Give the backbone structure.
Amino acid sequence: MEIRKAKTQGFCFGVAITLKKAEETVAARGDDTVTTLGHIVHNPQMVQSFEDKGLRNAHSVDEVDAGTLFVRAHGLPVEVFDKAEQKGLTIVDATCPMVTKIHVQAEKLRADGYKIVVVGDPNHPEVKGTLSHVPGAWIVQEPADVDLLPRASKVGVVVQSTWSGAGFTEIVQKLSSKYYEVRAVNTICTDTHNRQSQAEDLSTQVEVMVVVGGKTSANTKHLAELAAMRGARSYHIEGADELQAQWFDGVQVAGLMSGASTPGWLVDQVEARMRVLTATEASAAGGA
């Protein structure tokens, strides 16, 4: 069986920066406690690795009484930063530069008099952080939501960096038909765009697509959905131990790709296991 791998594999730029800073922070902590709000990355292997090194996870800054607050790639709402400072916590900010860019763009648009529209999932931590920078902003998840928005003279639009929902362009077009002036900044991360494009392209070339990444990773889940929409049998797994030989029965070409929070070595493990499983099946068929 031929295995075709997507060009973009391993950690995205933002996750790589975050993990490097986390390694440095945990290594230099001494007796200090280092805590992150929410898992540092949507990958169980990496989460366990950092927990073993002493990185603590909390649900709220109210649970953190001392030490260092490590801010993961998604960033945090402004009020959480303020409370952490009031509590005297040391803050290490590893917010992804692409996420920070969204905050800056939204604030600039608001300063220019635009009513801000954020395209994204209101429950996603990144979006919560963005909304805190532009209080009163409207949130939109699909074109139909535009019909429910109040009147305004002009609106400014930004989008969640890992957005994988309804087409951003379609939403902007609908906003443009409703409002006199619309200024939109496409803040979807290049890595997210590339992976989604590669998922769509590769899935038309293969019979089966294996997507490696945490089950809680929205961007990984969407890659698997895109592959299925293009006709490939799609499997979203977190590790090589989840692979099943019957997935590849009679398959000539399989695809392999990963989410932005998946380390390259994990993809390599999955590829190696896929080769073992198909080689075993081939040997069994030959013996028969």
